[in-house]
Structures are given as C-alpha cells and as structure tokens.
Design brief:
The protein is α/β, with parallel strands linked by helices. The chain has 2 domains: 2-223, Spore Coat Polysaccharide Biosynthesis Protein SpsA, Chain A; 245-354, UDP N-Acetylglucosamine Acyltransferase, domain 1 (3 Solenoid), CATH 2.160.10.10. It contains 8 helices and 31 strands. The longest helix is centred in the middle third of the chain and has 12 residues, at 224-235. The protein is elongated, with a radius of gyration of 22 Å. The chain starts with a strand and ends with a strand.
Length: 355
C-alpha cells in the first residue's frame, strides 16, 4: 500500500497564525501535526508516501524533506488550487499507480493510530474503507447515513439538515476503483470534486465500501479551540522525561517533559506540559496543558492551557495568560497599565504590548 497526505489548503480558520505558515506544520505537543500523520502511516508499515501540497509547498518541503528521518520516501504532488479532496486523488494517479492506498488529511489527529485499520483493509476484498465518528455538529462535515445492516446508504457533504451524526474523519482507504470514480464525478456547488461524491459513486456502482466507526478521540485541528483540544489530548499521552536543566529552586511535576537544552530557573511547571529545546523559563509559572516550543523565553510570567511557538518572548506579564495560541517570533511584554486578563490568538512576528 501507499500513503497519500493532503497538505494543501489555506487554513483560513486558523488566521492569523496561518497567514505565514502551513496549518499542518503548527505543532501539537511540540510536534507538527503533519509529522504525526507521517509517523502514523509509517507505523502502519507504509513507506511510500505522497504529499499533496498547495501554496505552502516550499515550507512543507523544507520541513519534511525526502522522508529520511522517518525511514520513508516522500513524493510531492502540486495542487494548483484547492479544488477538493477527490481532485487531490485525481492528480495523484501517477504516484498511486493503481496500488491500494490510505489517504489522510494532514491536519487531523486521531487516537490510537491507523495500523489496525490498514491491516484490516489490506487483508480484505473491500474496495474502500472509510473512518467515521459521531460528532456534535455534523453539518460541518461529510456525513454518512447507514442502513439497518450498518452498510452505507448515502453520503452528503456538509448537509444543512443532517440525517446522521456520523462524520467522515479524514482517513480513507481505497483501491484503484476510486480513480475511475474521481474521473466520473462532477464538481459540487462549491466548485470542488468532493470525496463524498466519489465514495457515493463507488457505492452506487456496486463497489464494497466498508464503514469503520472510530470510538476514540479525533480532532480536526482547523480552528484555534480544536488545536488547543488536540494539544490537551496528546500531552496526556506523552512519555514524560527531563533532558534539560532544572535548578534546585524550581518545582517540575512528574507529567512534564523538558527537552534538551531547555532551562527551568526558579519556576514552577505543572503537567501535563512540554518545554521545548533551548527554551528558558525564568521566575515563571507554566500551568497544565501547555506546550512551549523551541527557543522560547518566558520570564516573570504565568501561562497555562496554551501553545507558544518558536522564538517567542514573553516577559513581565503579571496576570496569567491562558487558552491562547501564540505564534512564532512574538514578543509580549508588560505595558505600564495593569492588565486584567488575557486571551489571544497571535500571528507570527507580532509585537504585543499588554495594557
């Protein structure tokens, strides 16, 4: 089998963070979501992976390379415009070369990986397997309606009046029959080739499409709140270890990872949390469910339930920062007027004076 990761799209729901960065490269627990997807596919025994890229292709290529660090081979497939998931399959036909494959959205995080799913599909005679999970707002997703026997009756992309709460979670397995489907369907009212239409075509033409209902957690990291939720869940699954320096005046909880080169000076860090490489935390409090990426400085400040990206600087913030996504190269320092509270999503290279 092969792997196909979709890493195009503009990530508009994560603006301003994604004005200057690919949404798939925003880290969850200090590891970019795209890297987690690559690892999940590799751990399922797949070494040939195609990545469909768009406007952020150069950044994705620079970050991922040819795949050597994961022991896989990466092929890049350029999508000139975001014309739908089925369109991404269509333009990847040369790479897929009629092989079975798993398609994984590059901004999704799922509990438990996909090894079992891949094994089931590889040893079956199914033409496709789709992963479903129950959601609170199915109108935001592609939705599957099943019959009394648990077979797929109908799939609808973002229905106004959903007849089911089973959403497609962004993980699909196909054989070569899907290539015929993506060439046969027409663009939707959105002007895109919808993967739901391609799967429906398979069902309508007698192909075997197996629905798998995922019982664990799954997060589409497309919005700030979802990114924080994914960070929460992954932090709780880490193997915690202290590789950096913690001085004797600091208190670091047992569910905390301090990466190489990081320094914790006269501070309190309560887990689950992760402090990235070459980051300095001085006279500060880092609360639960916080990820601080590499080369960050936090001094005389308090922060919890937040994600701080690389090379940012937070100093002298008296009131606690929480529920926040803070981008790259951000500087946050105290202004003369006392602050009351802080909640923010801050883009890269920002300068923020707190009132």
């Amino acid at each position: 089998m092969k792997g196909l990761i979709l890493s195009g799209g503009k990530g508009t729901r994560l603006y301003p963070l994604t004005y200057t960065s690919a949404k798939q490269l925003i880290p969850v627990a200090n590891k970019p979501v795209l890297f987690r997807v690559i690892e999940s596919i590799r751990d399922a025994g797949i070494s040939e992976i195609g990545i469909v890229v768009g406007d952020t292709a150069e950044e994705v290529r620079d970050a991922v390379g040819r795949g050597g660090r994961w022991g896989v081979n990466i092929t890049y497939i350029q999508q000139d415009a975001p014309l739908g998931l089925a369109h991404a399959v269509k333009i990847s036909s040369n790479f897929l070369d009629n092989d079975r494959f798993v398609m994984f959205l590059g901004d999704n995080v799922i509990e438990g990986g996909i090894s079992q799913l891949i094994s089931e599909f590889a040893h079956s005679d199914w033409n496709s397997q789709i992963v479903l999970t129950r959601v609170d707002h199915p109108e935001r997703y592609g939705v599957a309606e099943l019959d009394d026997d648990g077979k797929i009756n109908r799939l609808v992309e973002k229905p106004k009046n959903p007849q089911s709460d089973l959403a497609l979670v962004g993980i699909y397995m196909f054989d070569a029959s899907v290539l015929e489907a993506v060439h046969a369907i027409k663009p939707s009212w959105r002007g895109e080739l919808e993967i739901t239409d391609a799967i429906q075509w398979l069902v309508d033409h007698g192909n075997s499409v197996h629905p798998y209902i995922h019982r664990g957690w799954w997060i589409d990291t497309g919005e700030p709140g979802q990114m924080l939720e994914a960070n929460d869940l992954v932090l709780e699954e880490l193997d915690y270890q202290i590789e950096g320096y913690v001085d004797r005046d600091s208190k670091v909880g047992r569910r905390v990872t301090v990466e190489q080169g990081a320094e914790i000076i006269n501070s309190v860090v309560r887990g689950p949390a992760i402090i990235g490489q070459d980051t300095r935390v001085v006279n500060s409090y880092i609360g639960p469910f916080t990820s601080i990426y590499h080369h960050v400085t936090i001094e005389d400040s308090e922060i919890e339930h937040s994600v701080v990206l690389e090379y940012s600087h937070i100093k002298g913030i008296g009131a606690r920062i929480q529920d926040s996504l803070i981008g790259r190269y951000v500087s946050i320092e105290r202004s003369p007027i006392k602050p009351k509270s802080h909640k923010m999503t801050i883009g890269d290279h920002s300068q923020v004076g707190i009132l």
